[in-house]
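Predict both folds.
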Amino acid sequence: MVRDEEISEDDRTTALGTVRFALEYFAAAIAAHERLEKSAPAGLTAMPVYSLAGQSVELSLKAFLRQQGESLSALRAIRHDLVKALERAEAVGLIHRADRGQVERLNQEYSSHRFRYIRTGYVQLLEVQHLFPLVANLLYSSMIGIPGAWRFMWHTPGKIVADAGWMSPIEIKRASAPPHD
């Protein structure tokens, strides 16, 4: 049996594990938004929703990069810059339909940790109706390039998690088998 300390951090950090985290952060962003929409005071902006969505984008792109052979140190060098991560992913083959302007707008506040730390001044937010489709598009595009990633979308044979509605922005068609796996 191999102990954790015998496996390098680089070997432990897999594309599959990273994309699973990306899915979990996206699910949490949607759940938080739906809950806050029902119970938060009018006009309250849910910064945690944006933070979770940005984290999902970051992890999605880094999972794709990891699958393409990027080292953990190369991923760390990107830091939390969504635009840098997207450019690097595009350079190694990521094909997507995400709006670069929307990525840049989300990145403006996300990469500076504005969603986590209070600072005075104007905050430029991507509208929620654009936020979730953006995250879903990049997550979907990343998952296509990661063998085995689609298994996280299935609970029982033939039933996609998206059927429950939490990833509906991806517009996954119902099928009897996951694509590309």
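Second protein follows, with its predicted structure tokens after the sequence.
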Amino acid sequence: MNLVEIFKDFSSGKSIDSPTMVRVLEDVFRTLIKKKFTTDDNFNIIVNANRGDLELWRVREIVPDGEVTDELSEISYSEALAVDDDYEVGEECYQQLFLEDFGRRSIMAARQTLISRIMDLEKDELYKQYTERQGELVLCEVQQILKREILVIDDANGRELVLPRVETIRGDYFRKGDMVRGIIKEVEMRNNNNPVVIVSRTDERFLAKLMEQEVPEIEDGLITIKGIVRIPGERAKVSVESYDDRIDPVGACVGMKGSRIHGIVRELNQENIDVIPYTSNTSLYIQRSLTPARVSQIDLDIEGRRAKVYLEPDQVSLAIGKGGTNIKLASRLVGFEIDVYRNNEVEIDDVDLEEFKDEIEMWVLESFKSIGCDTARSVLELNVDELIRRTDLEEETVRNVVAVLAAEFDDVDGAVPSKVAVPKVAVEAPGAETPTAKVPTVEVPAAEVPETAQDIKPTETAVPETRAEEGEMESPVDEAFVEAVEKAAAPEEE
């Protein structure tokens, strides 16, 4: 039995050192002796890993023949002479034992015990080794792809690790033999206390280790990562701080033309990463965390850990982000619940153009959206001629759209004037030249203006929109008004 080679194999392959292996062998053989002799008090076990020695010795006191009272601790003089002729009464007799003396069944049982103890040691060593390595970056080779997890082999020591599907980034696709990087997240004890090492690619520490690998200033301690929040595969925010005033922490992390951050983005399947400078000023920190939106004002509730953020209407969508990702990450990063408000109250009452899809055809709305008019007020801010020129729609279509949108805000447009100024009307006598004197204007009290289209009576006449229409339409002025004008112009005709 070449124990030296066996110990070397265990030390390299099983990560079990020689002293531990010697202790295990001693315990196994003492168990074997107890089964045969009921006690191991008078037995010596010698295991020398350096020379490969394994010896079992039984020690008993030599007594005269016929005076043996305890066979486990005493041996007769005649039996001692059979072992060695030099023994005398009163001395200790050392008798060597061999494995063959224990029988086949006992040896097989000892073999199973040894295997079980070695497996337990290996589990304990694996658990201890990877527990100490939690949070470290690990390079693995894909071994087997299962439905809910991927079995990978640690490239450093050949151990089998597990990469669950829930710990992979959206868009990850692996084949057998591919190399994959991840973080040692935790070590779980599963069936029969078997340690299972979990590898993760969605943990925040994975991004931190990638940045530490790509940015030398972080590895040297000149720049520290103060906080990381992620929505794996979509977006991440990293706050960094520099201990050297000469070093820009954001610029150092991004690199020249994004050379440093691009490698990390590719590893994370094009995950957008926002790197912001850390500050102890809470308001400024919240403002930076909402990048790329520009914040106008912030109201803080320190006790309730809430923040009211006011922005311009065009910045609200940037602050919220796609699916609310930007504001969620910002809230997690700063530790405040952030509520977003618009600055202009009028804009709050604005209506999106899609709300009018029941009254206006969708292709018409798309034409207005294509020129940047996404809301009703953005359309009403432009005049009709400008809308016609930019949308290339017919004038009638544009006017109809403007009328529908304007009707939405009739209740907000303000009070209706009590009097209406009627335009000057010049009455020309037949066969006479056009008078040079000015015709006096007369203000007529206006009738009550209807608020809605249903309030308009059939007898009321609409005001013409163009000069051409004004000549064609019937004059809304009554006969009394015409007679007053004619009398005012009569002296000049004479």
